[in-house]
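#struct-help
A.M.: can someone run this one for me? Single chain, 297 residues.
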Amino acid sequence: MKKLLLGLLIVGLVGSSIWYFAVKPYDYSIAFTTNTPSGIIYEKIQYWKYDHFNNSEIVEEKLNESVTHNFDFEDKSLLIDWNIIPINDSVNQVKAVVNHPGNLISNRLALLNGKNQEQDSLKAELEILRKSLEGDKTNYSIEILGKAKAPKTYCACMSLKGPLQQKAMLMMTNIGYLSDYVLKHDLKMPAKPRVLVKSWDKETNEIKFDFCFPIVNKEGLPETDKIKLKTLPSFNSMHVVFNGNYLFTHYGWYKLQDYAKFKELNLSEQVLEIFNHNPEMGGNSIDWKTDIFTLMR
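D.P.: on it. Structure tokens below:
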């Protein structure tokens, strides 16, 4: 019996060793949880400036789900797969999965011996990332209000396109054309400026949208090469309120998307944003309110 147990133990140890040194798909992983929307985490990881690793390069990425970086640490090269894993409609796990191309055995032995400065450095890096995500929350807030009707509005609009993160910059670049049109034709604005996002290519992260000033219609109003007159339709939507700088209103989209996955809501890529404050008046950006309406299919 003792020989049998010893034999089973040896077989188990050999099997575990083979799995650990030859089969296990990664060297080690470290994780933390946060109630930050997945898209915000994704952007943070994409543009993160690392304290402990050098020569970072994006090898692969999947929008709002994962980013793979190649790094140098001391004299070694390593790959880190950053995975964003939903826990529920408001909590995500951030998991860093590490591999060492071409240097497998020595690194896994170092882990067994507990002598791995790289692992300690990655733990410190994740803690910096976690604190940064938490600190950013002082600059914005997001509230999901629920189902609502997006308002119907007659507008003077410009059609624009570009990366999602450059939406506000495109608006700032082109707002002069809309302002001049309103002044030239002595138009009244019965409501706040707005954007209607018509499409969002999640492969390229490019959006196409109309940037619009609501106006009171006048007979004979002309269109121009840049300015078109449109009625933005009412539609059934989920209503989200974002408070913060208009550069980051798409954070509200991200939170709603996480929410929709768990609530089994079928959302379109059509999004109406209404900007209720004028940034040129100054003040604390946390007081700037954006109403966001996302079309429900």
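A.M.: thanks! Confidence is low (pLDDT under 50) at residues 4-24.
D.P.: also worth noting: The first helix runs from residue 2 to 23.
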